[in-house]
Each structure stands twice: as structure tokens, then as C-alpha cells.
Amino acid sequence: MDGRYRYRHLRWATMVLISLLSTMCSVQAVTEPPPIDPQDLEDNICSAARTCRECIALDPMCGWCGDQGYAEETNFQRCDLHANLMNRTCQDITFPDSVVGVIQNDPLSDAGEGPMEAVQVAPQRITLKLRPKETANLTVSVRQARDYPVDLYYVMDLSKSMGDDLNRLKTLATTLAQEIGNITRNFRLGFGSFVEKTVAPFVDTAIGSLREPCPGCEAPYNFRNHLPLDNNTDLFSQRVSEIKNVSKNADHPEAGLDALMQVTVCKDQIGWLPRARHIVVYTSDDSFHIAGDGKLGGIVQPNDGKCHLDPDTGFNTKADEYDYPSFGHLNFRMREQNVIPIFAVTYERIGFYHPLVRFIEGSTVGTLAQDSSNVVQLIKDNYEKITSRVEIVDNSLENLAVSYTSRCLDEAPRPNSKVCTGLRLGETVSFDVSVEATSCPDNNTQKFSIRPIGFDEAVEITVEVACECECEASAVPNSEYCTNGNGTLSCGQCACDPGRYGKQCECSSTDDAGDKYENIASCRASINSTSSVVCSGRGECICGECVCFERQDRNEIVSGRYCECDNFSCERYDSELCGGPNRGECVCDEKKRRSTCKCRPGYVGNACGCATSMAACIATNGLMCNGRGRCICNKCTCESPFQGETCEVCKTCIGKCSSYRPCVECQVYSVDISPADCNKCNVAVAIETDLPTINGSSLCEFPVPEGHSNCSQTYSFVYETLSNGTILVHLVEPGECGGDSGSGGNDGDGPVVEKDASGSEILILIISIVVVIVLIGVVLLALLKAATFLHDRREFARFEKEQKSAVWGQAQNPIYKPSTSTYINPIFGK
């Protein structure tokens, strides 16, 4: 993506948060974001847009500057944050405001209040003007009106197994009408029945069976509307009583979904009122056929969701031509007509209907007695469930994202909730609704509705998505500003004619792609010119050459043939580019095509963090890192156990004996360090016959270096610091083999003596410890073996003693059986 500067994601996120906070208001215009401090003006997401249309669709924070010459003269991008454009004093800013307008907002009211009908949803009509990716907030209030009209249609399974239920319904018809009258004064009742499709294998298609499938049974049918909705309750009882017999089908499932579809979509035949609560009571003692089952009878055409009832007879005339409806199709039609079903089914079959309830919005299910004796109470209970719950839905399009927060009576707001429960008639709940236009649609004006399930009222919302700029309508063709009329001046910039390109159409090409492509290719750093970004994404290719962007107000410079370098991307040392101006500067390495550090004299490294001087590594004794480390970048890397800036600190050493030892042995024995380093030693050695007593000095004693004595001897010294800073060491050379070395100044009460054990002594000590451990192990094994031997010997002796004293008795084995048997013939000799 071509951009002028680096992205500053953290600051951009902060500005987005400010914008979101400023838009969170209900039923009012979205306000402009507050101005930003000029020091925060950075490149941002708006930089990607190249036209005004793209700009306002890119992000709600983006605005377009239509000032002529704005981008060409200032090198600022036209599409920028609104606050940036304000701070840069752009005069012609295109920044569409998002507006929420309420067109109709009749107050909520019950039925019979005033000349108007009951109002259960407010407001009724709203217009939204939104920018893409911007959110508008509004509030929808819902109150279920008291005494609201109710249309109740009773549809019943009249297969043979429901014969006793039909008889019970005849006795309950009057009671049902009375109970509905207690709920509302304005109600109507209707009645219908269903059996099955009249094709094999669903029914017996023999001619006689089609007329009378069982003795005394009615001919099978799919669905029949016996009584359209009517406020005459006596007529309801009469029509139910007129049904003499049930019918019969060949399988268990019924055509219940066919019946529900016809009841829903046949508005005129059923008689649904526009302003009423539409309830369907569905009773059955068996399951139902689903979409696809019709193929068993050769019916392959999907259900068309249209009304096919004969206006004279009330029968479904197209049942054998269309398959059963699917759950989704039935739910769509019921939601469209605001129909809510109550499923009253027997206990054995209720498991089939629970999944159906999950698919159909607002529906409920109850357990029906075997003879339907509890149907009246079941209708009352489920009607209360319906009226105690409010759930809102919408039919918004794909490019609109709608979210909800419910405010149910005294409960706390619940985000992502569209349901309120536990309500009574007359109680008001509200829902906070957020509508976001996620993209620009083909048609800038769209409509959708928000409504409670089962209500015939809704909030009608018209959304206008601002995807075009007003300045585009006043474009000037062949403008002189566009280099001799070679382009159209639109929204402050040139749209070049074919064969021309550049900010002011100042560059030409022989065709639309050829020369222009070659010129752009020369602005790409890669050999494979189609794989790299033009001018590294930090400049503009003008007639084949890169013109790099600069931020003079922040002293940021982009350079290089392909704008591949800058003065702010080099490595840092101590949080500063190239270690700061005293160490180096960030320059462009055209061979490597990247920004690198050019170090000043005395410094090296990728970030000029390494000083060439070694002065900081010289110890107080004059040695480099005290002879106990290496000097790297003017810092000592010490050997263990030495520490400190010059490796002079040794927490496990006594005094400074070890610090002065290298210089002493260098000067006296010419060992350990090079002669050049030996000359740097700030230590003077005085050979003494006896060591003097010096306060603050330890007695230092070390073995004589190998090759300088015929036996294992040691040398001793003490030290003091002279007024000129020189360390004076008083040393006594070792005596003859077997003699003691001088120890003047230490007669038992003197300072602590530091001794370094020789390698041979340490080896003897290690061997001795190993031998002792081995001997202890051998002795323990021998003792263990002896103890085991004595224990086994005692046990064997006890065993032999018990064996000799054992006395074995003679007795008959109870399980022994002899090998011969004797039988006596009782009649022998008679």
C-alpha cells in the first residue's frame, strides 16, 4: 500500500477510541471528533485512499480535502483524519455526518385509548444516514397492550386415533370460547383439520379405501378449513359438532406441516386481521412428515409456500403436487405473517416437537391429555407464556450489522440480548439498537424492520449509506489545471485522460499501460519490477522518477533513488539513533539500499555503540583489566571470580594480594604477562630480608612459579600505597629447600595470610578422599554379607531341628476310595 509515512498503530487506536466514544448517543447526529494536538499528526489508515469515494468508505474518521493544489503543494495526502485536515487548515473538507432521524413516534397505548388503535412498538419510522463502518444508536420500546385483539385458529389432527379427542372438543368448544373471552374482549375463533396426502404410501389408494378407509370413516384429505376466523363463538361450537367422523391414513406421521403452511399463508380464507395477535393451536397424537418425505409418494416439487385452499370447500387442492414444507420455510412464512403456533401433543410424541419449537420463532409446546380434556387449560397457560415474553428480530441485509442490548424492567442492561421475560400486559421494556453499515451496497438506500415476534407492528428503518462525495457531481472536464486540459478536475485532484498520468496529468504514455508501466517500473527497486512497491511505498513516481515524501515538521527525511532510506530507521544505542549525534549519524547506503549508521572517529559497530579507546579498561595497577579479563568496546569482560569495571573486585579473595600478584611475578620472575604489559604495572617491588609491618596490608603468600626453584617453596610480600599513587611491594624471596620463608611482621598476631594451594597438594587431597570413600564402601559390604550369612545359618539350624522332632500319625484319608467295589444280589439263592 502506497503511504507517505510510517503507520503509528497505537496513536491510531487512540483516535478510533475517541471517535467511538463521540458516536455513542441515542437518536441524534454523530458529532465530530475533537481536534488533536499537532504533534500527534501521523500517517494513518486514511492514507490508502486515492479518491474521495474511497476515502469516505475507508473509515468513519477519514475526510477528504478538496482544495486545489493541496496535495501537490504541501505533499500532504488528501484523504486524512478529520483532525489532521483541520490542523492543516484545509478549506474544502468532505466529511459526511451520520444522522439518526425519527419520522414517526406515536406514543405507546392500549386498545381503545383515543381514536387510534393500540400502539405496542415505538418509534414507528426512522431514517439513518450512515457512513460505511460507522455505527448509529437508537432505542426501541415495546409494550404489550391490554385487551389487544386475538385471532385463535384451532387446527386438529383428525386421523382415526384422534376420535376421542374430537368428541371431547365438541364438549369443550363453548368452554374454550368463554376462556378466550376472559383474556380479551376482542377475539375470534376458527377451526380446521388435517389428515394426510392422498397418495401411496401415505394412504391406502384402493378405490374403496379412498372413499371409506375404515368403517364409518371420512375419506382422507390433506387439510380443510372448516371455519374461518369469526367472533361468533356459537358458530365455532356448531362447526365442531358438525364433524361426525374421523379419517384414516396408512402410516404414523401426519400432514401437520402442510396444514400449518396453509393456515399461515391463506390470509383471506382464514381471515387473519392485520392488527391482531395471530395464534394457531395445533393438536395431534402423532409425529409429522418433513420436507423430502414426499419423494416416497413420487412428489419431488418443493413446497411453494402459497395458498391452495378452495374458497368453497376449504380443502387444500395442491397437496399431492407439492412436498411437505421445511422447518425454515415454515418459520419464514409464519414470521412474515406474525403467526405464533402452540403445539398441544400427547406425552408419547412430545419429543418430536421440541426441535420444531427451536426452529419456529415464538412457538411453545405443551402436553395434551389422551382425550384432549386439558386443551383449554393448555391454551391458557401457553398464551400466558407468549404474552410474558418479548423477543425482537430484524430482517436487515448483509451489509448492515445490527446488535442489541435489552433493558427489561428493573434489570441491569444485558448486551447481546434481544429477549425480556416475566412480563405482564401493560409493562414496557426497551432495547438499545446499534446499526453499522459494514460496506457500500449496490443501492445506497435500503430498508429493513425491527419487530417483536408475533406482533404485526414494527419499526421501519430506512438506511442511506453515504458512499459518494458531493464534490464528484461538480467535476470539471478538460480542466486547465490538469496540464492543458488532459484530465477532469474532481474533488480537487485530476482524473487523467487515457495516455496521461501524474498528479496534474503532466506525464504521457503512448497507450494506457505501455509507457506508463515502464516509467513506474523504473521506480521499483527490485529487478523483478512487478514484485516490489513503487518508490518503496514512501514516495511518488513522477514521470519515471521517485519523489520521496518528507516530514519537515518532524525532521524526518526519506531519501535514496527508490526512497528506500530514511533518517529514522537505523539501529539504536542507548535509545538513540546511532548512539546519538556525538557517536554517529544515520545515512543512506545506496549499495545495500538501506539506512545505516556512519560512525564518528573513536566509535565502531552497527549502532556506533563500541568505542575504540581502551582507557576505561586500565586498572589501578596499570594493567589492562587487571590482567584478569579482556577489553571489548572500552569495557572489561572479567574472568571469574573477578568483577568490576577493571576486574579489580574479587569478593572471594582476601585483600589485594591477587591483584598485585601478576605484577610481582612479572617483575621478579618474568612470568604470566607480556613484557609490554609488565612495563605498564603501577607496582614497584623491593626485595627485603624481613617483611615490615604495614597497617591495612595483608600478608600475601604464593608458591614460587614453576622453573624458578628446585622444590615446592613460597614467596611472601606485603604492600603499601605511596603518596604518588605507586604501589610498593616488600617481598622476601624463599629460603633453601626445607627452610621457612621469611615471615617478618607476622609472629602469630599479625595479619591474615593468603595461601594458594599447589596443584600436587590438591591432587593428593582428592585421591585421599576417593580412597577413604572406597574403603568405607568395602567395609559396609563385608558387614552386610556377614550379617546375611549368620541369619541364614540360624534359620537353617531351626529348620533341621523342627524336622527331626516332627511325629507323623497314621490315619485314614477321608477322600481315599478303594479301587474295587462289592455288590450283593438280594435275590441270590432264592
From TrEMBL:
Entry keyword set: Calcium, Cell adhesion, Cell membrane, Disulfide bond, EGF-like domain, Glycoprotein, Integrin, Magnesium, Membrane, Metal-binding, Repeat, Signal, Transmembrane, Transmembrane helix
Pfam families: EGF_2, EGF_integrin, I-EGF_1, Integrin_b_cyt, Integrin_beta, PSI_integrin
GO biological process: cell adhesion mediated by integrin; cell migration; cell-cell adhesion; cell-matrix adhesion; integrin-mediated signaling pathway; positive regulation of developmental process; regulation of locomotion
Membrane topology classification: Single-pass type I membrane protein
One Gene Ontology cellular component annotation held by this UniProt entry: focal adhesion
Signal peptide residues on this chain, from the entry's feature table: 1-29
Stretches that traverse the bilayer: 762-784
Bridged cysteine pairs (disulfide): 52-62, 55-90, 65-79, 214-217, 266-307, 408-420, 467-471, 482-494, 491-535, 496-505, 541-546, 543-578, 548-563, 565-570, 586-597, 588-625, 599-608, 610-617, 631-636, 633-678, 638-647, 657-666, 663-737
Domain EGF-like: from-to ranges: 597-608
SMART domains: INB, Integrin_b_cyt, Integrin_B_tail, PSI
Cross-referenced Gene3D superfamilies: Cytochrome c1, transmembrane anchor, C-terminal (1.20.5.100), Laminin (2.10.25.10), ligand-binding face of the semaphorins, domain 2 (3.30.1680.10), ntegrin, alpha v. Chain A, domain 3 (2.60.40.1510), von Willebrand factor, type A domain (3.40.50.410)
GO MF terms, alphabetically ordered: integrin binding; metal ion binding
Subcellular location: Cell membrane
Main location group: membrane
InterPro entries listed in its UniProt record: EGF, EGF_extracell, EGF_integrin_1, EGF_integrin_2, Integrin_beta_N, Integrin_bsu, Integrin_bsu_cyt_dom, Integrin_bsu_tail
Membership in a protein family: Belongs to the integrin beta chain family.
Name this protein carries in UniProt: Integrin beta
Organism: Patiria miniata
